[in-house]
Amino acid sequence: MEIKDILKKKFIFFDGAMGTMLQKKGLKAGEIPEIYNILHPEIIRDIHKKYIEAGVDILTTNTFGANELKLKDTGYSGEEVISKAVHIAKEAKGDRKGKYVALDIGPIGQLLEPSGTLKFERAYEIFKKQVKAGVEAGCDLILIETISDLYEAKAAVVAAKENCNLPVFCTMTFGEDGRTFTGTDPLTMVMVLQGLGVDALGVNCSLGPKEIIPIVEKIIEYSSVPVMVQPNAGLPRVEEGETIYDIKPEEFAQYIKNMAEKGGSIFGGCCGTNDEFIKQLIIKLKELKPLGIKQKSITAACSASKTVILGQGVKVIGERINPTGKKKFKEALRNNNIDYILTEGINQQELGADMLDVNVGLPEIDEEVVMKEVIKEIQSIINLPLQIDSASAKVIETAARIYNGKPIINSVNGKQKVMEEIFPIVKKYGACVVGLTLDESGIPAKAEDRVKIAEKIIKTAKEYGIGKEDILIDCLVLTVSAQQREVMETIKAVRIVKEKFGVKTLLGVSNVSFGLPNRALLNKTFLAMALSEGLDAPIVNPNNQDVMDTINAFKVLANEDKEAKDYVKTYSDVNVKKEVSQKSSNKSLKEIIVRGIKEEAVAKTKELLNIKDSMEIVDEYLISALDIVGKKYEKGEIFLPQLIQSAETVQRAFEIIKDKIFKENKETISKGKIILATVKGDIHDIGKNIVKVILQNYGFEIIDLGKDVSAEDIVQTAKQENIKLVGLSALMTTTVKSMEETIKALRQNDVECEVFVGGAVLNQEYADMINADYYAKDAQEAVRIARKVFQG
Ligand code: B1M
C-alpha cells in the first residue's frame, strides 16, 4: 500500500530522537552526527533497529544536517552521507512489510534573506541536492523538519516537489508565543505549505508535548491534509552542563493521545525521546482510530506572518503600486527607486489596506527583474499579503516562486490560452487567483453572460486541481460615462456569482467614474452598492478618504464592526485623521527608521545634520526609533525580519553621522588603546559602534573585536596588545552572564586592565555584581571613563 493511502486509514508512527540517542552512544559536543553514517554505521543501524522493535512505521535517516554547507569541512559530500544513511535505514528495516524510510532534511543552518544573507534560489539548490541523493539511494518519502523560517520551508518543499514524486511531509518549530522564529503563525504555515502541495504538515521539536497542544489545535483547525506532531520530551533544562528532559514516556504518550483525539494522525518524538517513548505512544493509541481529515474551505492570502481570510468582512486591496496613470510612479520604476515604491506600500498599510496589489509593468523596463526586486523588498518590511499583478505569465511565475507566503495572482480570464498558462502556476505555488469575466469575445454586456464565464473559469480551475476557495471572481467594472447600462450588470453579476458558486468576489472600483466630474462621489456610491451585494475585496486607493469612509461605514451597518468599535476609534477624533495624512507626506527620521526605508533615512540624516548636532541625532532619532521598534517587537506587532530592516536603516544613517564626526574633529595623537567587544552570544553591535566612533573622535585608539566575541579572544588580545582598558557591551539579559565570564577570565589570566561595561540591560548595580570597574550608560560616559583611566 502507498504511504498516501495508509495516511487515510491509520495512525502513522515515526521514530523519536536521533541526536540525543547518539549523545548517549558517545557523540561529543561539536561532532557532526551525520558523519556517524560513515564512521560508525553500526551505531546508527542499532538505533534504527530499536525504533523498528518499538513498532514505528517510518524510520528517519540520520541526515538532518547533511547539506553541503554543514558538511563543508568534513571531507565528505552530502550525497555520500545521504546515500550511506538511506542504506543503513533500509538495512535496519530489512524486508519487513509496511515499513518505510524517510529522508530527513533539517534547516540549512544559515538564515535566508532578509533575516540573513542566503538567497532563496541558493537554498533551493542545496535542498535539491539532498532530495536527489535521497531519491537515488531509495528513500520512500521526504521529511522536511525543524524549520523555523517559512521561506526556508518553501525552498525545501519546492525543491522536493520539483525533483521527486515521493510524498513530502513538512514540520516547523514554534516558540512559546505560538509563532516561529521569523514570526509565522500556525494558520499561515498551514495555508502556505498546504498550497505548495505537502502530503502532511505539522510541528516538531519546539516545546514539550503539553505546551505544543494549543499550536497543534490551531493546525488541525485549518489543515486539510494530515497533521504530524513530534514534540520534545518536555522543555529542556541544563543541569551541570547536561541537557535534561523531564517528561517520562507514559506521560508523553498521554499527551499524544490527547492530540490524536483532536485529529492529529502522524506521531513521533523529537529531542529527549527514545524507543521507549515511541513504544508507549503506540500502545496508547491502539485504543483509538484516527478522526480522519475534514476538508476546510478557507479563502486566504498570506504574507509570512499574516493571513487575511476573505469572506470574513470587507478586505481592502490597495491599488497604488501600479504605474497606470501615475507619472511619478513610472519615473520611480525607470530609476529603480525602490524606496518610492516601498513608501507607497507603507502608506497604504497605514491607511488601512489589508493586502497590496503589485504591478510594475512598463514597456521600457525589465518587468521580471523589477517585480522580483520589488516583491523581495516589500516582503522584508511590510507584512501585508500581496497580489501579484502582471500580464506576463513569466513575471507571475517568477514572483510567485520567490514570494514568501500565499499570494493572489491577478489574473486569469475566460480565454482558454490564458487559463492554460496561468492555472499551472497557481496550482504549483498554492496561490489564489483572480478570474476576470471576459473571454475571446470581450466583456459581455449582460450579467448572465459574465456569470457563464465565471462558471467556465471555476470549472477549468478544478481540472487543474484548484478549488473554488482559491478563486476570486472579478465581474469587471465598466465606465458609467461610456457604458451606463452595463454598470448595474456588474452589480448584478456580483450577486449571482456569489449565490450560485459561493466564490469570493473582487472589483477594481475607480474605473466606474472615468470622464465625469466629482469622481469620488460616483466611486463611493458604486462601492456601497457593490458591497451590499456581497463584494468581498474592493481594489481601491486607501488614500482616498471618501472610499475608506464608505468602507468603514459599511462595516458598521453590515454588523461587521461590532459595537462600531473601529468606527468610533477612527472618527471620534478628527485630528487623528489629519495627523495620519500628514504622517504619510512628511515623515520624520524616527518614522523612517521604524518603517525601515534605508535610502530615505540617508537623505533625511543628511538634511538633519545641517540643523542638528551629530549626537543629538543619535539620541533623539536613532536610539529612540530603535526603542519603538524594540517595543513593537516585544508586543508581537513586528517580527524579526522587520527588526533587522530597522537596525540596518540605523546603521546606514549612522554611517553618514560618522563621516561628519570624523571630518570635523578627528584627533590624531593616540590617548590610549582600548578594546571594545560585544560579548559571546550577543550580536547587537549598534551601541558598541557608536561608542567606538565617539571614543575615536576623542583621540582614543580602538581595537574593535566585533560582536559575539569569546572571553578567550578578549583575554588573548588584551595580553598581546598590553591593553589597559577593555569595554564590553551586552544587550540581552542572557548575555550579561558572558560579560561576567569575560571579566572573570581577564582577572584569572592576570590581565592588568580595567573593564567598563555598557548596553541597554545594564545598570550600575549589575556592573558591580559582575565585578566591572565602571558602568557607562552611554558613549559620553565611556569617554569620561577613558579619560579617567588614561588621564587624558
Ligand atoms: Co534584538 N533584542 N534581538 N536585535 N534588539 C533587543 C535587545 C530586545 C530588548 C528587543 C525586545 O524584545 N524588546 C531583546 C532582548 C531581550 C532581553 O534579553 N532583555 C532582543 C532580542 C530578544 C533579540 C533576538 C534574540 C531576537 C531573535 O532572534 N528572536 C536576536 C538576538 C540575537 C543574538 O544576539 N544572539 C536579536 C537580533 C537583533 C537584530 C539583529 C535584528 C538587531 C541588532 C542589529 C545590530 O546590532 N547589528 C536587533 C535590535 C536592533 C534590537 C533593538 C530593537 C535595538 C538595540 C539597539 O541597537 N539600540 C533592541 C531593543 C532596544 O534596546 N530598544 C533589541 C540602539 C543602541 C544605540 O542602544 O545598544 O543600548 P544600546 O547602546 C547605547 C547604550 O546602551 C550604551 O551606549 C549606546 C549609545 O547610547 N552602550 C554602551 C551600549 N554598549 C555599550 C558599551 C559601552 C558603553 C556604553 O562600553 C563598552
UniProtKB/TrEMBL annotation:
Question: Can you tell which superkingdom this protein's organism belongs to?
Answer: Bacteria
Q: In which pathway does it act?
A: Amino-acid biosynthesis; L-methionine biosynthesis via de novo pathway; L-methionine from L-homocysteine (MetH route): step 1/1
Catalytic reaction(s) noted? (6S)-5-methyl-5,6,7,8-tetrahydrofolate + L-homocysteine = (6S)-5,6,7,8-tetrahydrofolate + L-methionine
Q: Where do the B12-binding domain residues begin and end?
A: 671-792
Q: Which InterPro entries match?
A: Cbl-bd_cap, Cobalamin-bd, Cobalamin-bd_sf, Dihydropteroate_synth-like_sf, HCY_dom, HCY_dom_sf, Met_Synthase/Corrinoid, MetH_bac
Q: Which PROSITE patterns match?
A: B12_BINDING, B12_BINDING_NTER, HCY, PTERIN_BINDING
Positions of the Hcy-binding domain: 1-285
Class in the EC hierarchy, top level: transferase
Sites binding Zn(2+) sit at C205, C270, C271
In short, the EC number is: 2.1.1.13
Domain B12-binding N-terminal span(s) in chain numbering:
576-669
Residues annotated as coiled-coil are none
- Pterin-binding domain residues: 314-558
Required co-factor(s) are: Zn(2+); methylcob(III)alamin
Q: Could you tell me the keywords of this UniProt record? A: Amino-acid biosynthesis, Cobalamin, Cobalt, Metal-binding, Methionine biosynthesis, Methyltransferase, S-adenosyl-L-methionine, Transferase, Zinc
What job does this protein perform? Catalyzes the transfer of a methyl group from methyl-cobalamin to homocysteine, yielding enzyme-bound cob(I)alamin and methionine. Subsequently, remethylates the cofactor using methyltetrahydrofolate.
Q: Which family does it belong to?
A: Belongs to the vitamin-B12 dependent methionine synthase family.
Q: Give the protein's recorded name.
A: Methionine synthase
Q: Which organism is it from?
A: Clostridium ganghwense
